[in-house]
Amino acid sequence: MSAEPSLPTPTPTPASRLGVWFIGARGSVATTAIAGCAAVAAGLHPPTGMVTETPDFTSCGLPPLSSLVFGGHDTVDCPLPKRAEHLAAGGVLPHGLPSAVHAELVAADREIRPGGPLAGDTDGGPARTDDDWIDVFAADIRDFVRRRGLAGAVVVNVASTESAPTDGTLPPSSLYAAAALRAGCPYVNFTPSTGLHHPALADEAATASVPHAGRDGKTGQTLLRSVLGPMFLQRALAVRAWSGTNLLGGGDGAALADPAAAAAKNAGKERVLTDTLGAAPEGEVHIDDVPALGDWKTAWDHIAFDGFLGSRMILQTIWQGCDSALAAPLVLDLARLVARARERGLSGPLRELGFYFKDPVGDGPSSLAEQYAELRRFAERLRDGADDRGARR
């Protein structure tokens, strides 16, 4: 693949603004993140769920929330203000918030460019090659940074889960990931889609001049598994079986109704148990599309384990929540952390951000407590030499 000169590493100033370029920019997660960022920056709501707004991350030099400028790619044309109204009607966003941050939603919507590829994307001429798509996407990102006078941009994939590729071609998530690198931008894959994990991008990912992190955000069921798995191991309790079911609607439910997409999603859930317990226990994870649930989901786990003298016991958990509201603050965390990592001259995979992912890049612990300890040490690295912006909003 051809390579164009990437954007130079920015020299940040207190007034610098940072771009956040969402793949899936009109989806529930991106809309919630954009509206939530505006609300927190304006003091309308507290930063609940944002790890980077806790004391451990004070004075790390993270970009203020008020400095973030949003744009992205999407294949749908529902305007962000209308999408926010739908989310408010479903209880995902607070009543009245879409009106309160209408200007910010309109501004972000103006920066959304057509995504792809879709069936029939030929514009009446020959079909675009993978390299053509990468060039188009990278040009969109570079244009966004230059027009808006930004210090740089972070590309974050929050699009619907895609099936794993089977024919060696680059799926859309990998085209966007390659475009981020070509544009000289840090990249975060918050989905289980292939992204930079494609074999054709392995060398580029390993030698990238910008930091990248992923994949598959850890927001609910797997978050609990990364806490409970170590508990059983540390208490020497033998887990015999661990089964789970997810009921969800909305775009994720529809996307994951595809067995191939569901398999990509479940792989990360099961990997956490294998890495933590040393072997995969009996049991599977099932995902059921229930359109009536909208953006809400229920995750149920049934854990069979042995205690002292072979006594058989059961632990069941039920997690009911809104995935978009769980994911949005983590997405904002990651954009800020990865942007700061680039300012500090870091590049390549950031294993220290495994706290946020089901299937993190690089080798690292699977226990949430150990991952958080790594994240705190990473915050110390970012704090060294931090500029005077601190973590103010």
List keywords for this structure.
single chain; alpha/beta; seven-stranded parallel sheet; four-stranded mixed sheet; disordered N terminus; disordered C terminus; Secreted protein; Myo-inos-1-P_Synthase; inositol-3-phosphate synthase activity; Myo-inos-1-P_Synthase_GAPDH; NAD(P)-bd_dom_sf
Describe the structure.
- Pfam families: Inos-1-P_synth, NAD_binding_5.
- GO terms for molecular function: inositol-3-phosphate synthase activity.
- This is Secreted protein.
- One of its GO terms (biological process) is phospholipid biosynthetic process.
- By secondary structure, this protein is α/β, with parallel strands linked by helices.
- It folds into 2 domains: 18-217 and 325-383, NAD(P)-binding Rossmann-like Domain (Rossmann fold, 3-Layer(aba) Sandwich), CATH 3.40.50.720; 221-322, 2-Layer Sandwich (Dihydrodipicolinate Reductase, domain 2).
- Helix content is 37%, strand content 18%.
- The strands form 2 sheets. Strands 3-2-1-4-5-6-11 form a 7-stranded parallel β-sheet, sandwiched between helices.
- A hairpin with a 5-residue loop joins strand 9 and strand 10 (312-322).
- Helix 1 crosses helix 2 (80-89), helix 1 packs across helix 11 and helix 8 (221-234) runs parallel beside helix 10 (259-277).
- The radius of gyration is 21 Å and the shape is globular.
- It starts with 17 loop residues before the first strand and ends in a 10-residue tail after the last helix.
